[in-house]
């Protein structure tokens, strides 16, 4: 018998072939990673409508989940949610636990280790008040000697210099409290809030009193999907699908649905310009 020949009885051969298939399939699955079948989305567990929240059935809703659902559908992948703290979003991509999250490149520390999609939409934060803003004024004029209601677990880099220079004072509140409600109760003079979030809160609370918005945003940045490095070769397809989601009007519909534009208060009661 040749030293390299091994005799395997027929029943044993079947078992051998079966286990070879199982092992090979497993290796291929490991090599391709979960991204071959699923799109693992790292999402902040703090609910912040209209961007992300859960229903009574623990289903994710909001602009981010619905946009991710549209992308995973076009990529023919099953979407999986990985809830975590804000600080864990970037790290989950670096260690390979997640495939993608939703951030601005300006908010990321390790840019060179991550892959960014083309910009999806603009994220803008404005000041809101119960009194009109001086349209020709600047942030320094709007903020001087004012209190601003802010989330206690969020960072506000566009406002830090005003607090350091004692121009304005922050009033930190829980993420469970509607900021617009505090403004109406005059717990603070101003709000610093994303424009979509502000419209959502006013609609949801049925507020009819005038709420004025600053003529210019304090911060604006382009939001993107951020992927781990393993997705480098797939980014051309990702960007193509995102472009089609925008071109078809699906992105606009997702935003409008989640901020309830059809329920906007009477323009005479609420002013945003």
Strand and helix map with partners:
Blueprint: H1 10-32, E1 38-44, E2 53-54, E3 60-61, H2 63-74, E4 78-84, H3 88-94, E5 100-103, E6 114-116, E7 121-129, H4 139-143, E8 146-151, H5 157-164, E9 168-173, H6 179-184, E10 190-194, H7 195-205, E11 212-213, E12 219-228, H8 235-247, H9 250-259
Parallel strand pairs: 1-4, 8-9, 8-10
Antiparallel strand pairs: 2-3, 5-12, 6-12, 7-10, 7-11, 7-12
Would you kindly provide a written description of the structure presented here, covering whatever features stand out?
It is a single chain. With 273 residues, the protein is an alpha/beta fold. It contains nine helices and twelve strands. The strands form three sheets. Strands 5, 6, 7, 8, 9, 10, 11 and 12 form an eight-stranded mixed sheet that branches. Strands 1-4 form a two-stranded parallel ribbon. The radius of gyration is 25 Å and the shape is globular. The chain starts with 9 loop residues before the first helix and ends in a 14-residue tail after the last helix.
Structure, briefly:
With 273 residues, this protein is of the alpha/beta class. It has helices at residues 10-32, 63-74, 88-94, 139-143, 157-164, 179-184, 195-205, 235-247, 250-259, and strands at 38-44, 53-54, 60-61, 78-84, 100-103, 114-116, 121-129, 146-151, 168-173, 190-194, 212-213, 219-228.
Observed structural traits:
single chain, 273 residues, alpha/beta, two-stranded parallel ribbon, globular
Estimate the global geometry from the Cα principal axes: globular
Structural class by helix and strand composition:
alpha/beta
Q: Average pLDDT across residues? A: 84
Order of helices and strands: HEEEHEHEEEHEHEHEHEEHH
Residue windows where pLDDT falls under 50 for at least 5 positions: 1-8, 13-35, 261-273
What is the C-alpha radius of gyration, as a whole number of Å? 25 Å
Main sheet specs: 8 strands, mixed
- Taking the alpha carbons of the first and last residues, their distance comes to 90 Å
Helical content (DSSP H or I, runs of 4+) = 25-40%
């Amino acid at each position: 018998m040749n030293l390299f020949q091994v005799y395997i009885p027929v029943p044993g051969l079947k078992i051998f072939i079966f286990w070879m298939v199982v092992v090979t399939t497993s290796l291929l699955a490991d090599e391709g990673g979960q991204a071959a079948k699923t799109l693992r989305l790292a999402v902040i567990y703090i609910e912040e409508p209209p961007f992300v929240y859960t229903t009574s059935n623990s289903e994710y809703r909001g602009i981010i989940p619905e946009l991710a659902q549209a992308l995973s559908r076009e990529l023919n992948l099953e979407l999986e949610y990985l809830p975590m703290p804000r600080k864990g979003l970037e790290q989950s991509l670096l260690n390979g636990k997640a495939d993608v999250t939703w951030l601005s490149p300006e908010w990321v520390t390790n840019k060179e280790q991550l892959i960014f999609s083309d910009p999806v939409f603009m994220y803008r934060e404005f000041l809101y008040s119960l009194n009109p803003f001086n349209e020709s004024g600047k942030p320094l004029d709007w903020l001087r000697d004012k209190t601003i209601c802010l989330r206690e677990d969020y960072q506000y880099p566009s406002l830090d210099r005003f607090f350091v220079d004692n121009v304005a004072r922050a009033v930190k509140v829980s993420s469970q409290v509607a900021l617009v409600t505090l403004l109406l109760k005059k717990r603070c003079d101003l709000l610093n809030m994303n424009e979509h979030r502000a419209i959502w809160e006013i609609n949801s609370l049925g507020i009819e009193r005038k709420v004025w918005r600053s003529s210019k945003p304090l911060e604006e940045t382009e939001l993107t999907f951020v992927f781990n490095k393993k997705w480098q070769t797939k980014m051309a397809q990702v960007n193509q699908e995102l472009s089609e989601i925008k071109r078809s009007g699906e992105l606009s519909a997702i935003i409008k649905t989640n901020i309830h534009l059809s329920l906007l208060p009477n323009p005479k009661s609420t002013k945003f310009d």
